[in-house]
Write a structure and sequence with these properties.
With 162 residues, the protein is an alpha+beta fold. It is 48% helix and 16% strand. It is built from ten helices and five strands, in the order E-E-E-H-H-H-H-H-H-H-H-H-H-E-E.
């Protein structure tokens, strides 16, 4: 299961819980020198992105080095791979510095899987050409969402290719 905060971050609960930034959020951080410095001042983040401490120290002391360092396309990808859950537990001020409410992480990590699934709703819209299609017995299983379809006039599967 994945909870998505569009253009900000995704959270995956459970044993491999993780809060990971989306590209737009990572790019906003890179463009803001104060946010980039805040990230680089947290040793746990530096360790997770695998950056030598010497380069981090240079970036923290020089605006030009900071721009060069965080401006590299590789940096955004590295930043998107950092699991912020563990980091923010030790450095709660970091979320606020990055423009995310600290209540977000508190709420996400406080949810247990059964509670989480009870609070979700499934919503979807069928395309206009499928107005005569009916869905029954919609269930969520480990391999995906399953439903019984009935209707006419909308070919799918092998019939679609005729």
């Amino acid at each position: 299961m994945l909870l998505d905060v569009p253009e900000v971050a995704s959270y995956r609960p459970g044993p491999d819980a993780g809060l990971r930034l989306h590209r737009p959020a990572a790019e906003r951080i890179v463009r803001d020198a104060a946010k980039a410095r805040a990230l680089l001042s947290v040793p746990a983040i530096v360790d997770r992105i695998g950056v030598p401490q010497r380069r981090v120290d240079q970036a923290l002391r020089s605006d030009a080095r900071l721009t060069e360092f965080v401006g590299a396309p590789r940096f955004v990808r590295l930043l998107m791979g950092v699991n912020l859950v563990d980091v923010v537990r030790d450095h709660p001020w970091l979320l606020e510095k990055l423009g995310l409410g600290p209540k977000l992480l508190t709420a996400l990590t406080a949810l247990r899987l059964p509670e989480l699934s009870e609070r979700l709703a499934l919503s979807f819209h069928l395309p206009e050409q499928a107005r005569d299609v009916r869905l029954r017995d919609v269930v969520v299983r480990t391999d995906g969402i399953h439903a019984q379809l009935s209707g006419n006039g909308l070919p799918f599967g092998a019939a679609r290719e005729r």
